[in-house]
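Q: Protein A?
A:
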Amino acid sequence: MPRFPASTEINTSLADILGRDMQLDTWQSVSGGSIHQAWHVRSRCGQHFFIKTNQANKFHTLEAEYLGLQTLNNHINPENPLRIPKVYTLASNEQYSWLILEYIGFGHSTPASQTALGHGLALLHQHSAPQFGFKTDNVIGENLQTNVWTNDWLNFWAEQRLGTQFKLAVQHGFYNSIQDEAEQLLNVLPQLLQDHQPIPCLLHGDLWAGNAAADTEANPIIFDPAVYYGDRECDLAMTTLFGGFSKDFYAAYNHVYPLDSGYEQRKDLYNLYHILNHANLFGGGYIGQSQSMMQQLIRQVS
């Protein structure tokens, strides 16, 4: 069975953390997203690990995940049913970088696990910060996500979410096709967020169905975060973007932490960020979709 070329060094980095040689001798390539290579690795004594590997120049993307998972784990208390993969270590050499995580086997999502997921997310969102942002910039997909601490949510969303994506659109050569809508949207953004004063809540940041699951005992898991402190509606909005979350999830969330009035009007504004990000990552139909979304948002206040 093939091993990752730096498997010996990975074994050493894990041994340094755990204080014993785990003898990682069974490597199985598994699905783990489009950016990194993912492995289910078993030690000679039968312990399992989930390891993400990449080239050394992708270290920053693994570091962003490492910091995000650490932050989420630090804010999960015993009352929260969410499982967050435990982080063991992050390391690199001249050629490769790697992130070693707890291995969690996936099971089937049930109405009970969807309920627990909504409950747990609502509890997670109750952790707040004095400002919007995060202690470091990170990534959304492979694109930069800036998180400079900011007092004003309107400015944060305009500059560090939409503005960053528009700058990337310039670099990728399609900004001219959406420029009119982008400029109009930024002009009407104060009206779209009028009287909305959210609390800076701890967010997963990239909460689509592919980043949530249930373990073999139907406990909810979330992973692959793009953490920052922002409007909790951003996480809820993204859950609607590609489906996969049931009415049990939303009912449980609202029971613990009811959403503010006006959420339905702001939902598309928050999802626009992810569609623009997909346009910058993949191009194609996402460019036209982002343009249509902006036109619809502008019509809301025209």
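Q: Protein B?
A:
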Amino acid sequence: MREKHSILVVDDSVESLDLISSQLLGEYQVTTVTSLREARQRLEAARYHIAMVDLVLPGESGLDLIGEITAKYPYTAVIAVSGQASIETAVQAMKLGASEFIEKPIRNLDLINILVEKTLQAQWLISENKRLNAMIHKDLETDLIIGNSAPIQSLIQKVKKIAALDTLALITGETGVGKTVFAELIHRNSPRRQRKFVAVNCGSLTETLLESLLFGHKKGSFTDAHRDKIGYFQEANGGTLFLDEITETSLAFQVKLLKVLESGIFRAVGSDSDIMSDVRIIAATNKDIKAMVANGSFREDLYYRLNVINLHIPPLRERRDDIRILASSFVQEFCHKYKKDELKISPGVMSLLLNYEWKGNIRELRNALEHAVILAENKVIQPEDLPETIVGETQDHDIKYDIGDQNWATAKADFSRYYIKNLLKKTNGNILQAAALAGITRENFYKKCTKLGIDWRDYRKSGENENGGER
């Protein structure tokens, strides 16, 4: 039987304490206190996974406690709770590190469980990322970020088997999935690890320049050859040469490359003598190389020579389990790079990340998190910190972002309308999917649409069923 997560609830209202604790008891270990003094005593005596803190207490401010928890107890997540605080106070709570905010009176009690579970998942990211890094560092010599999904773990097992062998490998997968990372992972765990790992993007170079860069050239062999220059085959001698986008090379160049792979001998441009090279070749492509072999645009003999071991890396949208780990790792990386205090990822942001298509794969995810860390003003990354392409542009111009003259009810209604419409656009009006993304029931989602004056049918594609996604 697993140990229950512990939750500290701080509220001066006995009624609120009874309501929250009765909703959570049984599934969680709940401790309730009515003052900041008691809360501080409890936090010093025991470890809590979550602290639910009322922002307005008699003669005290819950904001003080939130700041202390963030600074002294980073393993404790905070959910701010209040029915009296202004929207500015709620924003301040988020800036101090609160992951979520619940408004009292809490009419939908299920919302308590939903937010607690989302917050626990966010906290899990931190410990899981440390565990994964420790596991990878123990088994493989690397500080590279990879992932923890079943497909990636299967690839890591294959890397463990082939790294020590001097076999050629062909890595396939879409742009941005991490082909270079896996090539470097193989090198770092091979007997060649003490020598150079040299990566070349064949698709960004002309055939003449690629030949010169790989094989080197002699002075005077062409117009700009003002001196002798060694090529990457010599530079990587004893190490690993990674040829990315290998399918972008010409058939004529492929003949020359095949000769080097078979004999280990090449000749610099303009030279009349051969050079021997001892390199391990790892190639990669984002194209359907089998189809290119079939239509004659890539040499069949070179394909079979390179494809001794194939590592296919699936796109990020097919291994969404990796998004949590990667996102957490990238945030840590960029917090260190830009000298920021450690930032957390709010459950709302994680939901956006998990449901985005990531056509640019890991590279796009990494750029999005760098963007978020740079712009983040709070201790918790919020949706507005992400690039607009992730959050989704809206055509609703009636939403007020200047909250200075709004009360809490108006601001909440505006945001709710914005949030619901974006979910409907993302799911093409599929109520089941939209409700799942929001973490609420289908019935509750219908009610929100009605209350906010939103007709979900406006977001359905023509010809699709009219029952909100049910069959």
